[in-house]
Amino acid sequence: MLILVRHGRTGGNAAGQLQGRIDNPLDEVGRRQAEQVAAAIGHVDHVISSPLLRARQTAAMFDGALTIDDRWIELDYGELDGQPLADVPREVWATWRTDPHFAPAGGETMHALDARVRSAATEALEMARTGTVVVVSHVSPIKAAIAWALGGDVSMSWRCHLDQASVSRITPGPSGPVLKTFNETLYR
Questions:
Q1: CATH number of the domain enclosing 89
Q2: Closest CA relative to residue 21, chosen from 60, 79, 97
Q3: pLDDT category, 179, cuts 50, 70, 90?
C-alpha cells in the first residue's frame, strides 16, 4: 500500500498563505495532527518525505525507515511564496488553472511538478508492492500523484481539496495504480 500524507498544519496554513518553499515548522495543531495520523496508520515499512521541515516533522512521527526525496517538495510559487491566498489576483488563478506551463515569476510550472511527481510516485508504488510505504508531502505534489493514479493530467488537481494531515491510499493494480481512498482525516 502507498499512503500519501499531507503534512500537519503550520502557522502559514493557519494564516491562509501560499507556503511553497518557505520552510515553516508544524504548529501545535500540526504536531497533534501528525501524531494522530501516524498512530492511526500504525507500522509502516518505509517513509519518504519532502525535504521541507513541515513534512520532515510529520514523517518523524512514523516508525519506518526514512528517505528524503526532493521530488516530493511543494510547488515553487516564486514571488507568490508567503502571499495570502486571497491576495493572489484572480487573473493569476485563472491562468494557473488553464495553463499547466504557467509559472509565477521565479516559480515552477504545474507541468514540471507533474513530471517530477510522476517519476517519484512510480518508484514509491513499486516499493509498495512488498510493504507499506508512506509519502509525506504537500498539497500540490499529492494532488499530482492522485491525478497520476487516476490516469489524468495535473489539471485535475484544481478540482479536488486536500486537508492538512490528510491521507490518500493507492495500491498497485494489474493495470497500474488504483486510488483506494482520498482525503481521509484520521485526527480529531
A1: 3.40.50.1240
A2: 79
A3: very high
Residues 6+ apart with CB under 8 A from 147: 114, 153, 154, 155, 156, 157
The total domain count for the chain is: 1
All 3 cell numbers of residue 20? 511553497
Please tell me which residue in 7, 46, 108, 184 is annotated as part of the active site. Answer: 7
Annotated catalytic residue, options 46, 74, 138, 184: 74
Contact, 91 vs 43, CB < 8 A?
A: no
Q: Which H/E stretch holds residue 95?
A: helix 90-98
- 7 has catalytic annotation: yes
User: Which amino acid is residue 56, in one-letter code?
Assistant: R
Q: Which residue range(s) make up the domain with 30?
A: 2-185
Query: In the chain, pLDDT over 90 holds for what percent of residues?
Result: 98
Q: How far is it, in rounded angstroms, from Cα 53 to Cα 40?
A: 22
95 to each of 99, 100, 158, how far by Cα in Å?
A: 6, 9, 12
Report strand pairing: 166-173 vs 2-6.
antiparallel
pTM for the complete prediction? Answer: 0.96
Helix (H, G, I), strand (E, B) or coil at 59: helix
pLDDT of residue 187 exceeding 90: no
